[in-house]
Each structure stands twice: as C-alpha cells, then as structure tokens.
Specification:
- The protein is an alpha/beta fold.
- The chain has two domains: 165 residues, Rossmann fold (3-Layer(aba) Sandwich); 194 residues, Up-down Bundle (Dehydroquinate synthase-like, alpha domain).
- Helices cover 52% and strands 9% of the residues.
- It has 17 helices and eight strands.
- A six-stranded parallel sheet has the order 1-8-5-4-2-3, with helices on both faces. Strands 6-7 form a two-stranded antiparallel ribbon.
- The longest helix has 23 residues.
- It is globular.
Length: 393
C-alpha cells in the first residue's frame, strides 16, 4: 500500500495476552513508577469473582491493592467524585479496570480527574484543553464480551463525548482466568462490533496503513472467533480471540472521530428496533458494496482478512470488492441461521418500517453534509434485503 500524503497514528497501548498474563501486570506498573493500583470491577466481574485472579497475581509482590467492586453500569458524576476521593486519600497511583464498556468510560473520566487535580468531573469533560499531557497509568483487564471501544481513545459519560490518545489504556491484559462467562449472544455482539469497526477502518478514507494493521487483525480475529462461538460458545480460544479482536478494533479507532457507518448504526439503534451491534452487522455488507461506488471506500483491501490469502489472490481485481461484500453477507447469514434468527441479516428482519428508515436517513444527511442527498436512503434500500446497489443495475 502506498503511503498517503498525510497521515497520523498514535497507539500507546501495550498488549499482554496468554496464560498467566496477569502476573506481568505488577512488573509493567513498576516500570511506570506505580505500585499502589486501585482495581475497579463491574457487577459481572464481581458476580463471577474475577478479581480473585488478580489479587492472587499480586500476592508475591510488594504492591498494595485497593478494590472497589460491583460498580453500576451507569456511573454518575457523584460516583466518579467518590472514587477520586478514594484514589487520593489512599494514595493510589494507577487504575486497573476489570469490566467492559460503561465501566471503562467511567475509568477514563476518573483518570482525567485524578491526573488533572480537578474535583468536578464536569469541568474535566467540558475542557479537554485542561487534560494532563501524561495521565496516571491505567490497565484494562479485557473481558470476552466487550463494546470494542475500551482500548480506544474515546469516552462517553452523561452526554459528553471525549476523544484523546491520552484516554487509551497504557496496558491491556487478556488472561483466560478473567474472560468471564458471557452468553453466546453477548459474545457474538462483541465479534460483530469488532468486525464492523475494524472493517470500516480498513475500507474508509482517508487511508492510514498503520491503522489498517490493527483493523485487519480485528477482522481476522473476529471472523475466526464468530465461527467458533457458533459451535463452542464456552471454549476458551474463541473467547480469547474475541477479547483480542475488541482490543484491536479499539486500537484501530484510537482517537479518530466516529466513522460514517458507526454514526448510521447509532441512529438505527436509537429507534429501539435493534441493538448497535446488530445495526452494524446489518449495514456492513451493504456499506461495503455501496461505499465502493459512492464514498470512495476500498472493500477489496478487506478481502484477504475475510477469506484468506489464497482465495483473495485467486480473485480477479475487478471482482474483489463484490467478493468482499459477498463474504460479509455469507457471514451475517450464517449468524442468522445459527442463532435461529435472533441476529438479523437485513433491516427487514429487524422490523424497521420504511417511514422509520426515511426519518433516520434524513437525520444522518442533516448531520453529515458531505453525504449526497438520497445516498442514505439508497444504502437502506440495499440493506433492506441486501439487494445489489441500485447504481450497479
């Protein structure tokens, strides 16, 4: 791939993955001059007693550990302020987060608060210019079921959406003892989200070769894990792959603004007809086909990650974009079959009405003036039953 005229990529995340990966965390914290971590866990991690493995990993070290467990999924500013007081009063010097999505968002805001010396979380979130150039060390112990945004430089709390490379964790640890035991649907939602976020990173413009490396790895790991989870949802290997795919997708996103497919999926999920991950899965095959024609996307760059090197190399260049869309359709259709229809293939499966889609299309085009009038409606027409893009006929 030729280097673009302009590019920027920053990923400070170090990944440790495998058996006894937790035992490496004390050393990594020590290299960052930290030895008094505060462990935060969500309700799922607390219920499954996942923190026990981390406590055991620190047993033979001189680290002092604080624990705050069973934190609610939706954190208030008061909770952030209380945690900041605990962090300061007990002289903690690092955060370790054991949980997904909302807990990690809260931990990023908490890290901003304790690193900047602010007492009011609202003041931090409203003035990113006041963010410290170097935040306190933060470690993510990644679960198998995740939002895929945990490792990114994004955080969202109470309507405030923040983006900064400094929000990304310093270290991500994937250990089979702390993956958790989520259900099959939660695992598939993680895989679909990681797949879609990685795929958009690879296909969309402007191109960034370094971001593409993370995006391609997210797609490869997600595809392999989704096929395995269909048959063996309790197996360790596919859950490790899903955790890895979510981390890779987050690193690919870094601190860049939400992509076009992300924004459309959020609008669809807001209707209540489908979840965010399902909306991404519905949109992805149609967007790959549509994006090549109308948004200068390059779905051919994704083909090798989906079907392997041999099949990609044997596909004529003129057919690679359509083959990518076809491979994505096949994958989503397989998930529909293996979940007895619980994961929708197309907008029609999710129960959308034409009027709802017209409303969503209008709101997306109002928000993004770079989109040609009527383009989102045509995308939804393709995603209704994933028929060919009308422009191809």
């Amino acid at each position: 791939m030729p280097l673009p005229d302009r590019m920027q990529f920053n990923c400070p995340v170090k990944l440790i993955c495998g058996r006894r990966a937790l035992e490496h965390i004390p050393y990594e914290l020590a290299t960052r001059n930290a030895c008094r971590p505060l462990l935060l866990s969500d309700e799922n991690a607390h219920r499954e007693n996942r923190s026990r493995a981390f406590v055991d990993a620190l047993r033979e070290t001189d680290h002092t550990l604080g624990l705050v467990e069973a934190l609610p999924a939706k954190a208030s500013r008061e909770i952030v302020s209380e945690l900041a007081a605990i962090y300061r009063d007990r002289d903690h010097d690092a955060l370790v987060v054991m949980g997904a999505g909302p807990l990690m968002d809260m931990a990023k805001i908490l890290n901003l608060v304790v690193s900047t010396g602010q007492d009011d979380p609202g003041a931090v979130t409203s003035d990113m210019a006041g963010m410290a150039s170097r935040l306190k060390p933060m470690v993510l112990i990644a679960p198998a079921a995740a939002s895929a945004y945990e490792a990114s430089g994004r955080a969202s709390i109470h309507g405030a959406d923040l983006r900064a490379v400094g929000l990304m964790p310093d270290l991500v640890c994937i250990d089979e003892r702390t993956l958790g035991a989520p259900g099959q649907e939660a695992l598939m939602a993680t895989g679909i989200t990681a797949l879609a976020l990685g795929a958009e990173t690879v296909m969309a413009r402007p191109k960034n070769p370094l971001g593409d490396i993370y995006g391609v790895n997210a797609v490869q790991m997600a595809v392999a894990a989704l096929h395995a989870v269909e048959r063996l949802p309790d197996a360790v290997t596919p859950r490790m792959h899903l955790a890895g795919a979510a981390v890779m997708a987050g690193c690919a996103l870094a601190d860049r603004a939400p992509g076009r497919m992300e924004r459309i999926a959020r609008r669809l999920a807001a209707t209540g007809r489908t979840s965010y991950s399902e909306a991404l899965g519905i949109l992805l095959p149609a967007a790959a086909d549509f994006g090549e024609r109308h948004w200068d996307w390059s779905p051919a760059d994704l083909l090798r990650a989906l079907v392997g090197l041999d099949r990609a190399a044997s596909t004529p260049p003129a057919q690679q974009a359509m083959s990518t869309a076809s491979a994505l359709k096949t994958l989503v259709n397989d998930l529909f079959c293996h979940t007895a229809g619980r994961i929708p293939r197309v907008l029609d499966d999710a129960g959308f009405t034409r009027e709802e889609l017209d409303s969503v299309a209008a709101s997306v085009e109002t928000e993004d003036r770079a989109i040609a009038p009527g383009a989102i409606a045509r995308l939804f027409q393709a995603a209704w039953g994933v028929v060919p893009d009308p422009a191809r006929q």
